[in-house]
Amino acid sequence: MLDLKDKLKLYVILDRILGKGVPLREQARLAIAGGATAIQLRDKVMKGRDFYRAALIVKEVCSERGALFIVNDRLDVALAADADGVHLGQEDLPLQAAKKITPPGFIIGISVRTPAQAAAAERGGAAYLGVGDVFGTSSKSDAKTIGIEGLEEVCKSTSLPCVAIGGIGAHNVKRALQAGAVGVAVISAVVSQKDICGAASTLRSLIP
Questions:
Q1: Distance, CA of 32 to CA of 10 (rounded, Å)
Q2: Listed residue (142, 120, 122, 135) closest to 179, CA to CA
Q3: What does the DSSP 8-state code read for residue 194?
Q4: 34-66 pLDDT per residue, tens
Q5: Are the beta carbons of 203 and 172 closer than 8 angstroms?
Q6: What is the maximal distance between C-alpha atoms in the chain?
């Protein structure tokens, strides 16, 4: 049986731009080799057909290496590519609608910033929460920082596993975990680094 908390410890989000030219397949392979337990495919501009093809490639890497594979935003692509789940933001397809068309065991993660949003996601049947922006991030221009206090408030308000996101690095992983997160989600702290595998390994070593 899948232990979701274990699979959410080091959640690496792939990015074509922040990955500095490293192919998505290679980003995933190196991140998992370094200890990533979950991989998310995220791309706000890729056309649907290309995104689907990318999802198939990343899914293959994750399946071979035992990592969870999550698709960001695009539930249609997640289902078509046989991903383990989808991650939805507050402005994406509503959780209730997503639940209607997903099979049993399909993982749906929801982005939240407040205890109220967390409670709604839990009532709706979300599997986990992505909580943030915690420390500030350059990957999302509209991100609003909630700070470590905001993370702690959300974690205390829900029984769902919480993954901290936003400005996470080796210097503050422990603070996020102490606030109640079961794991951390990162982009630039891994895929923007010259040594993707080494960066992932450093972070993973800090997460019990």
A1: 9
A2: 135
A3: S
A4: 999 999 999 989 999 999 999 999 999 999 999
A5: no
A6: 42
Given the structure tokens 């070593």, which residue do they identify? 205
Residues in the chain: 208
Q: Give the C-alpha distances (Å, rounded to integers) separating 99 from 36, 89, 93, 196.
A: 27, 15, 10, 34
Q: Angle, to 10 degrees, between the axis of helix 147-157 and the axis of helix 115-124?
A: 30
Query: Do the beta carbons of residue 38 and residue 67 sit within 8 Å?
Result: yes
All domains of the chain, ordered by start, with CATH? 4-205 (3.20.20.70)
Residue 6 pairs with which residues in a beta bridge? none
pLDDT tens for 77-135 read 999 999 999 999 999 999 999 999 999 999 999 999 999 999 999 999 999 999 999 99
